[in-house]
Specification:
Blueprint lengths: L5 E8 L9 E9 L5 E7 L8 H7 L3 H4 L5 H12 L3 E4 L6 H11 L11 E3 H8 L4 H9 L9 H18 L7 H9 L3 E2 L6 E4 L2 E4 L13 H8 L5 H11 L2
Parallel strand pairs: 1-4, 4-5
Antiparallel strand pairs: 1-2, 2-3, 6-7, 7-8
Helix pairs in contact: 5-7, 6-7, 9-10
Length: 244
Amino acid sequence: MQQRPIIFFDLETTGVSTTNDRIIQIGAIKVLPDGTEEVKNVLINPTIPIPASASAIHGVYDKDVAKAPTFHQVSKSFAAWLSGSDLAGYNSDNFDVPMLIAEFDRVGIAFPEPETKLVDVYKIERLVNGHTLGDTYKRYMGEELDGAHDALVDIYATMKIFQKQLEQNPDLPVDAADIDALCQGDNKRVDYAGKLYEKNGDIYWKFGKHRDAKLKDTVSYCNWVLKSDFPADTKNWIRKVIGA
């Protein structure tokens, strides 16, 4: 049984850069240990134009967010709502979590809390099946996902998939901490974006041309990453390792 609240969440954004893009919609469902649910679905004024290519995907336009609050305005109350909970999403380790960290960092709020566990339903699905959110939803629910790319629609679909994963795979753990550990495998996550991992006290790259090489042996590459478009959390860990 889940011991802590778990929040399933999904973000719609102006783009895919955690440095240059911004959140425009937050869909989130907090599931308490007793099964009670709390739902949030808010539009956010990103303070920058929404590219037409992004609007074509999620259907949110500049006019829709013109009078919406900025992330700065909702950040304190949203952080308080997230506090004490674990986080879950679909491919959230690769995008939603790093984007949320970046937005909180820009307003001076440390996020997430050290004890927060991460459940990426996509990673579970890769362990037991594979494929996109829509395909995964159809396989488990026997119907097409109607309204994909709306944050709340996507996250309800993710919740249903997660419930089916647990039902159909009884060997899977049910607690967020155990699921987080399972998805990490033998290598411990270092940064929330999953670009780095720790093994036997050393920190290694988890991507790129230096994948599985130690950071301390690739200082030039470290410096390149520090100057490029990577999450702030990843860069902070690199600085700790090389003393930059």
